[in-house]
Design brief:
The structure is a single chain. The N and C termini lie far apart (46 Å). The chain is globular, with a radius of gyration of 17 Å. The protein is an alpha/beta fold. The chain is built from four helices and ten strands. The longest helix is centred in the first third of the chain and has 19 residues. 31% of the residues are buried. The structure holds inosinic acid (IMP) and magnesium ion. The site of inosinic acid (IMP) has 17 residues, from strand 4, strand 6, helix 3 and strand 9.
């Protein structure tokens, strides 16, 4: 039997929240429709993911591998929660960090090619317990490509945590080991998720409006 993987589901009819109820940067006020996941909720869910990961991987040395750029906020906050657990629990897990940069997106469309465009040599991960930290899994192609590259280097164990997974007919069926939120088939920005590099400097996860897609198009 497959292990049960818990995830907070955001339904297709989710209305989110009006922008006026939260603080968003002035320079993005005209670009956003609604707040879908407020920053505080992201943090609360991340705290629980940290606990689940330490429960399962505690006792082993973990190399946390951040998938840049979109994963950097989640990576940093998740590691802070793991560090807090390490300081306060009987069971603790030594952590080191690594980074890889991948690119697969242009405007709001996933492209068929996933490119590694920077980061450390994956060969340093041989024999290690690796926790891949990603912002969002959509088709699953990025993660499947990374997992296959990584398997050539023979790590001891690989687990994947993604803050978001998208319900999409374009999905390959791939599901990460740990997931924060399952979201509808919408293009989301904020909390380091970008549209052509914009909106990484927005704290909440929001829906972009159609005007903004044209304004920031490349
Ligand atoms: P996949 O290869 O289709 O699973 O796409 C994964 C990558 O596409 C993620 O790591 C993101 O960088 C990007 N991506 C997918 N959906 C979104 C979105 O809604 N907003 C921003 N980036 C996204
Ligand atoms: Mg990403």
């Amino acid at each position: 039997m497959l292990p049960h993987r818990s995830v907070l589901i955001i339904p297709d009819d989710e209305k989110g929240y009006e922008l006026d109820l939260f603080c968003v940067p002035k320079h993005y006020e005209e670009d956003l429709d609604r707040v879908i996941i407020p920053h505080g909720l992201i943090m609360d869910r991340t705290e629980r993911l940290a606990r689940d990961i330490v429960r399962d991987m505690g006792g082993h040395h973990i190399v946390a591998l951040c998938v840049l750029k979109g994963g950097y906020k989640f990576f940093s906050d998740l590691l802070d929660y793991i560090k807090a657990l390490n300081q306060n629990c009987d069971k603790s897990v030594p952590l080191t960090v690594d980074f890889i940069r991948l690119k697969s997106y242009c405007n709001d469309q996933s492209t068929n090619s996933v490119k590694v465009i920077g980061g450390d040599e994956l060969s340093t991960l041989t024999g290690k317990n690796v926790l891949i930290v990603e912002d969002i899994v959509e088709t699953g192609r990025t993660m499947e490509t990374l997992l296959s590259l990584l398997s050539e280097c023979n790590p001891k164990m690989v687990k994947v945590v993604s803050l978001l997974v998208k319900r999409t007919p374009r999905g390959s069926g791939y599901r990460p080991d740990y997931m924060g939120f399952e979201v509808p088939d919408w293009f989301l920005v904020g909390y380091a998720l970008d549209y052509n590099e914009y909106f990484r400097d927005l704290g909440h996860i929001c829906i972009l409006n159609e005007k903004a897609k044209v304004k920031y198009k490349v």
